[in-house]
């Protein structure tokens, strides 16, 4: 009886190891494919295509036409002000960390523990790319663990340049509008290659809540965020701060 139980246990353990290995190899292959190819879509794009987002204070929601605007661009195809603005707005230590900014996480946890009115996140650009590109919408411990796993993978298998290209191309910047090229065409009627520092700061400033703090017809809060990003861009030293990223 004990021998049969042990044999059964070994078979179960062997199957579990095979499943884990298959999942690992599949995710590695998935990440490697996107190292060179643009994602055809993300889970959030598919969700937005199927359903209009519902939330308090949302602006510019399309009730009927749910077609997605998305055009993947490399760093060579956008204004250098774009990556600078995104770093200044979202992750000023992007070029220094390996996917996780421990200092930012500690500061966010401290502010949340002290009872801020609004929960503050400490996600890096790498974590947001992992979430936006590979994961489903929602919040759970399982999803957070998967986010950390994919963050480690993309930091190991992609360059910082590729991570930034992915972020600026797939980040939601309005209802049914993904990436700086689609946002630039929608709000400024021109290519992302021609964005000024002020325009790039406005697009970056409304992240990560582009449905509430709209870039089209921006309100006072969006303008305040834009000015804060512009100050950070100047404080970082301008385009020279992301020179290494642009030259990779």
UniProtKB/TrEMBL annotation:
Segments traversing the membrane: 12-37
Topology versus the membrane: Single-pass membrane protein
Domain of life: Bacteria
Occurrences of domain Glycosyl transferase family (ranges): 71-233
GO biological process assignments: cell wall organization; peptidoglycan biosynthetic process; regulation of cell shape
Molecular function via GO: pentosyltransferase activity; peptidoglycan glycosyltransferase activity
Enzymatic reactions: [GlcNAc-(1->4)-Mur2Ac(oyl-L-Ala-gamma-D-Glu-L-Lys-D-Ala-D-Ala)](n)-di-trans,octa-cis-undecaprenyl diphosphate + beta-D-GlcNAc-(1->4)-Mur2Ac(oyl-L-Ala-gamma-D-Glu-L-Lys-D-Ala-D-Ala)-di-trans,octa-cis-undecaprenyl diphosphate = [GlcNAc-(1->4)-Mur2Ac(oyl-L-Ala-gamma-D-Glu-L-Lys-D-Ala-D-Ala)](n+1)-di-trans,octa-cis-undecaprenyl diphosphate + di-trans,octa-cis-undecaprenyl diphosphate + H(+)
EC id: 2.4.99.28
InterPro entries xrefs: Glyco_trans_51 (IPR001264), Lysozyme-like_dom_sf (IPR023346), PBP_transglycosylase (IPR036950), Pep_trsgly (IPR011812)
Pathway assignment: Cell wall biogenesis; peptidoglycan biosynthesis
Record's subcellular location: Cell membrane
Keywords of this entry: Cell inner membrane, Cell membrane, Cell shape, Cell wall biogenesis/degradation, Glycosyltransferase, Membrane, Peptidoglycan synthesis, Transferase, Transmembrane, Transmembrane helix
GO cellular component terms given for this protein: peptidoglycan-based cell wall; plasma membrane
Enzyme class per UniProt: transferase
Family: Belongs to the glycosyltransferase 51 family.
PANTHER family for this protein: BIOSYNTHETIC PEPTIDOGLYCAN TRANSGLYCOSYLASE, MONOFUNCTIONAL BIOSYNTHETIC PEPTIDOGLYCAN TRANSGLYCOSYLASE
Role summary: Peptidoglycan polymerase that catalyzes glycan chain elongation from lipid-linked precursors.
Protein's name in the database: Biosynthetic peptidoglycan transglycosylase
Organism: Hymenobacter qilianensis
């Amino acid at each position: 009886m004990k021998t049969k139980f042990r044999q059964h246990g070994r078979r179960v353990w062997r199957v579990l190891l095979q499943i884990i290995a298959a999942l690992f190899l599949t995710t590695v292959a998935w990440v490697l494919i996107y190292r060179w190819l643009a994602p055809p879509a993300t889970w959030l794009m598919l969700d937005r295509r199927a359903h209009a987002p519902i939330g308090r204070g949302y602006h510019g929601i399309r009730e009927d036409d749910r077609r997605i605007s998305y055009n993947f661009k490399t760093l060579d195809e956008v204004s250098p002000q774009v990556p600078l603005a995104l770093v200044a707005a979202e992750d000023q230590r992007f070029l220094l960390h390996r996917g996780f900014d421990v200092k930012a996480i500690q500061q966010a946890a401290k502010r949340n523990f002290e009872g801020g009115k609004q929960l503050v996140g400490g996600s890096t650009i790498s974590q947001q790319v992992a979430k936006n590109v590979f994961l489903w919408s929602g919040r759970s411990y399982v999803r957070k663990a998967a986010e950390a796993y994919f963050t480690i993978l993309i930091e190991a298998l992609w360059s910082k340049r590729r991570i930034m290209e992915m972020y600026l191309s797939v980040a939601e910047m309005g209802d049914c509008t993904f990436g700086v090229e689609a946002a630039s065409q929608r709000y400024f009627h021109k290519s992302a290659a021609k964005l000024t520092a002020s325009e790039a700061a406005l697009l970056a400033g409304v992240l990560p809540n582009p449905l509430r703090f709209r870039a089209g017809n921006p309100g006072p809060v969006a303008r305040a965020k834009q000015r804060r990003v512009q100050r950070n861009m100047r404080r970082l030293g301008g385009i020279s701060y992301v020179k290494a990223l642009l030259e990779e």
